[in-house]
What we know:
By secondary structure, the chain is mainly α. The chain has a domain at 28-73 and 118-302. Helices cover 74% and strands 0% of the residues. Helix 3 (45-71) crosses helix 6 (100-116), helix 7 packs across helix 8 (157-188) and helix 7 (120-148) crosses helix 11 (268-303). The longest helix is centred in the last third of the chain and has 36 residues, at 268-303. One of its GO terms (cellular component) is plasma membrane. Residues 1-23, 320-365 are annotated as: Disordered. InterPro entries: Virul_fac_BrkB. The chain crosses the membrane at residues 53-75, 162-183, 203-227, 239-260, 272-298.
Amino acid sequence: MLGLEMSPQPQNPTRNAQQATSALPRRGPMRLLKRTWVKSWEGNLFSEAAEAAFWQVLSLPPLLLGLLGSLGYVAQWFGKDVIDSVHESIIEWSNTAFSPNVVNDIISPTVDDILRHGRGEIVTVGFLISLWGGSSAMSSFVDAITVAHNQYGVRHEVWQRIFALLLYMAALVLLVIGLPILALGPDVLPKIFPMAWRNEIAFWVNAFYYPALGVLIVLALATLYKLALPRKLPYHRGLPGAVLAMIVFLLSSIGLRLYISWITTTGYTYGALATPIAFLLFAFFIGLAIVIGAYFNAAIQEMWPAKMTKRQRRAWRRLEMSKAGSRTEPAAQPVRQQPVQPPPASPNGKAEAPREARRTPDTEP
């Protein structure tokens, strides 16, 4: 009796669609914020921000020493008034952070000697230490961004370090161009234009100075989020995290300003101690804002994946073509015929016939 195999019953397509829909993660603002917090907590958010803050603090004093040491060589270009103004600004800032004895006995003579006479060893060592510390800070940011997007290790470690160094040098060039404009501010900037244009320039500067500054910072952060990833995302995918980083930075700056204004009212001693603490917290909040923005972009990418870019589609086509070529190569090769083995010998010494030949014609299966 022949056995019949039971064919599998077709499943209900409506039920499958409902199960697939229920399996998808819920999407919404609260879900996005929760996912951002979970990813950032699992990725050691505060450790990454503290590491970046340490390298920022380490790179800034040598950079300032290098800049001050170079002023002794170019003092004749700017004039004596500019050197005196820089000297007074440094001493005034030092009085808020150090005691009068330290300022008068150590800081003031040192700054005066550096500004009046060029010191090549200070310039060289200062810039080298600043380059090392600044590139390490940039490397910390790049590592944090790649970890947030689960792309850490895709780029080789040596190349990632060199990439962070190049990125830091490019950022220094942009800062050298942009810092003079930031230092002038909206009040002094119109004065560099002719008298006939000052009123109109002052109107536009007062109206768009701070909004334009915020837009430039957001674009710079979005560029960092894009360049740091080995597997690039579209540029607009970095804008949400850049905006969030800007908001976190502004809120933390307001909190630091309130803290400094409150602590300085308690007395001179606490005010002097609060300045370096505020500087450390300022560097920490910069790193915290950038890392939070990276995890926010990663959470958006998980919940709403971006479409493939043209470059990624071309790479995918090349990969598929190479796979198809590797599958067709074995089929094109000639098939080697295996040599025919002689039939095994029977115990009586005669060759044993195959099983099909031993079946008699009158035997029924």
